[in-house]
Design brief:
The protein has about 120 residues and is α+β, with helices and mostly antiparallel strands. It has a single domain, classed as HIT-like (HIT family, subunit A, 2-Layer Sandwich), CATH 3.30.428.10. The protein is built from 3 helices and 5 strands; from the N terminus they run H-E-E-E-H-H-E-E. The structure holds guanosine-5'-monophosphate.
């Protein structure tokens, strides 16, 4: 698999506004925020999507979710509520094939999708 931009962010080759780093995960602000708080959480080991991650390493998926919750606390949105999404494939608009959780909050988010 060729490198994605998230490997470059992990290697500090591309700058990012890092919110939290743990032994197994990295959280940084989305460059194009779609909510008042919009942070991406990635596992440091690359999997293509959340299903591949869950199948290969359930503990690492749990680490991603724990980091997402820690980010929500740091951002002050844990009490008011936040959303965690994993875009998977074309219809969901996945553009980076290194699994990442979108942590969204800081405002009323509305329904998950429109139709
Ligand atoms: P996806 O669409 O794959 O679920 O999410 C990829 C996310 O990466 C998008 O929300 C997009 O705004 C974000 N993104 C794309 N390029 C960059 C970048 O260079 N830096 C950061 N911090 N986020 C990026």
């Amino acid at each position: 698999m060729s490198e994605t931009l998230f490997e470059k962010i992990m290697a500090r080759e591309i700058p990012a506004d890092i919110v939290l780093e743990t032994e197994t995960t990295l959280a940084f602000r989305d460059i194009n925020p779609r909510a008042t708080t919009h942070v991406l959480v990635i596992p440091k080991t690359r999997y293509r999507n959340v299903a591949d991650l869950a199948a290969a390493d359930p503990q690492l998926l749990a680490d991603v979710i724990s980091t997402a919750d820690e980010v929500a606390k740091l951002e002050g949105v844990a009490a008011s509520g936040y959303r965690v999404t994993f875009n998977t494939g074309d219809d969901a608009g996945q553009t980076v094939f290194h699994v990442h959780a979108h942590v969204l909050g800081g405002q009323s988010l509305g329904p998950e999708a429109s139709r």
